[in-house]
Amino acid sequence: MTDDSKWTADSKLPDDSKLNLIVLDMAGTTVADGGLVEQAFSAAAARLGVEPGSADHAQKLDYVRATMGESKISVFRHLFGAESLAQQANTAFEEAYGTLVDSGLIAPVPGARETVERLRGEGRTVVLSTGFARTTQDAILRALGWQDLADLTLCPADAGGRGRPYPDMVLTALLRTGAVDGVQQTVVAGDTAYDMLSGVRAGAGIVAGVLTGAHDRDRLSGHGATHVLGSVAELPDLIARAEA
């Protein structure tokens, strides 16, 4: 459960506060990728000489799991140290993930497309964000036929290079769209602790964790979720209650 200091699922916003900017994570939140991140990481690590099944591989994979939601290049900088090695690993990861995406191994989270369409139909601005590079994000969007689904798509490079847990992508969404007058009129939804931290640090009015991805209720709540939902499909009703 969320902390008592945070408002409940039925809490109301001030009458003049409309939640008109919705920033949604992709993998694990709106996109089900079936563990492709781990598969792509293993391929990238092998290219850099990390043997599958080794203790080094297991340790690095544990770190990847723990930092789901973070910008992938930041993860590789931590794991491999030297910038040249991090860039090699990131390139190999993006190539492997793109190949897996093109193989048809991803799908929308049930109700995700309908959620975005409903939110936009209500006059809200929807932004899809990711910790992947732009090439990978575009490959996912193409595979799902989502190129025109959202008002805007963002990756860390669009926000000066800093991905989650920094607030930069959320704030970039606000600046680029001009959809709201203040950060408190923003909703952030994601499946990882880093999504929650990003939303909290940006000052979003709702920071919703979803249970369709990497992290569980306790971890999402512990990193600032104002609400924890079964899936993103529950988000429009939550917003409607908050504004009622």
UniProtKB/TrEMBL annotation:
User: Per its UniProt entry, which superkingdom is the organism in?
Assistant: Bacteria
Pfam families, per the entry = Hydrolase
Q: What InterPro entries would the database entry show?
A: HAD-like_hydrolase_sf, HAD-like_sf, HAD_sf, PhnX-like
Please name the SUPFAM superfamilies in this protein's record.
Answer: HAD-like
Which Gene3D superfamilies does UniProt cross-reference here?
HAD superfamily/HAD-like
Q: What is this protein called?
A: Phosphonatase-like hydrolase
